[in-house]
Design brief:
The protein is an alpha/beta fold and 378 residues long. The chain has 16 helices and 13 strands. Helix content is 42%, strand content 15%. Helix 7 crosses helix 11 (272-278) and helix 8 crosses helix 14.
């Protein structure tokens, strides 16, 4: 049996963490022995333990003793491939392979990158056998800002298991009932971290601009929580202060406008598929996303998507076919596009079906996993 060690020591729980964990679970199903390096007690560890994927914990600092301990683990588990998902983990992963020419090292890039062409990074990245990203734009950029040859940078689309993203009518009914959404109301939802760059306030403000004739049968749902801190002291808020303040601003706006029954705050919800099933339209207000996993999940659930005209949205959304784009941070423009879908059930169904088809053709997990294993085994 081939063996791999994946690194994801992030304390957060967002698209990066969820996707890397999902990929580990898929590799296990494909017959690989998977081990993960993660933070003790993190959401990453909980997710993996539920799927019986063993985990290890790295020392807090990268030093000779921690690197020797990691090299010992590589020998004990007969690891063939190291795969890094959280950028800081490239340091212990690369250093553990000094003098080891038999194992492979891969890095997945999920977010924006900075220049890493200084001598120290050139030394660390010299050991990398391949870099993966789901953004064709980032493939081009990485060749300029990372100290690796273009031949090692690969476009690898995100994979989604479509069987797990089919709409669930029973969950739809239960969740809508929980929030007081009647069967004839249109639920327009988003799933984002409550962070200024993610645009949840842009979305909330849009409710004021929904066509007055349609507003009475429309409700908004915001699923998500503020960005979590890496370390928390006893009795301290687990959230980043600026993000917690941003949530308070949203709550104050809802209260001041009298929208408490119209704009619903659900907080973090682990049942992503269930909450997408409850929605009729999905909105992605992030102001500059590289390539969004949650947009793919919404499309896989057969939802039309309204998204800001920026970043990876331009690649994912074919305007007028599977979704609509609005000007970044323009709540009035977003509301106009949302109103288009609220007004027409036929258009929602037509664009939702096209969205599902896009994911089936471009992001099937079986195809993405096959390509990844090709790099692992090459």
């Amino acid at each position: 049996m081939r063996s791999c060690l994946h690194f994801c020591t992030s304390d957060s729980w967002g698209g990066l963490e969820l996707y890397s964990c999902t990929l580990m679970a898929e590799l296990k199903q494909a017959g690989w022995a998977v081990t993960a390096a993660c933070r003790p007690g993190s959401n990453v560890e909980r997710f993996l333990h539920e799927r019986e994927i063993p985990t290890i914990h790295l020392a807090g600092s990268v030093g000779p003793s921690s690197i020797l301990a990691l090299k010992k683990i590589l020998r004990q588990k007969s690891v063939d491939v190291l795969h890094v998902h959280f950028h800081k983990d490239i340091w212990p992963a690369s250093l553990s392979l000094l003098g080891d020419g038999s194992r492979k090292l891969f890095l997945s890039i999920y977010m924006g990158v900075s220049n890493k062409t200084d001598p120290l990074h050139r030394f660390i990245y010299k050991r990398v056998d391949g870099i993966f990203t789901s953004s064709e734009e980032l493939v081009r950029k990485l060749g300029r800002v990372y100290p690796v040859p273009a031949s090692k940078i690969h476009y690898l689309p995100y994979g989604r298991d479509l069987r797990q993203r089919n709409p669930d009518d029973s969950k739809r009914e239960r969740i809508r009932s929980l929030y007081g959404v009647s069967p004839d109301e249109i639920l327009v939802g988003t799933m984002v971290r409550i962070d200024p760059g993610k645009g949840a306030m842009d979305f909330a403000r849009g409710y004021s601009y929904i066509d007055p004739e349609l507003r009475g049968k429309t409700k908004f749902l915001i699923v998500g929580e503020p960005t979590r801190k890496g370390r928390v002291k006893p009795d301290e808020s687990p959230f980043e202060p600026r993000c917690e303040a941003y949530l308070q601003d949203i709550e104050a706006f809802i209260a001041a406008e009298g929208f408490s029954q119209k704009i619903l705050l659900a907080g973090f919800q682990p049942d992503l598929a269930g909450y997408l099933s409850a929605m009729d339209v999905f909105v992605f207000p992030s102001r500059n996303e590289l390539y969004s996993l949650v947009v793919l999940d919404a499309m896989a659930a057969g939802l039309p998507v309204v998204a800001s005209r920026a970043g990876g949205n331009l690649r994912q959304i074919e305007e007028g076919k599977n979704g609509l784009l609005y000007n970044v941070a323009d709540s009035r423009d977003a509301a106009q596009k949302i109103s288009t879908y609220v007004a027409s059930g036929d258009l929602r169904r037509l664009h939702g079906a096209a969205a599902r088809s896009f994911v089936e053709h471009e992001h099937d997990m079986r195809q993405s996993l096959s390509r990844l294993l090709g790099f692992y085994e090459r």
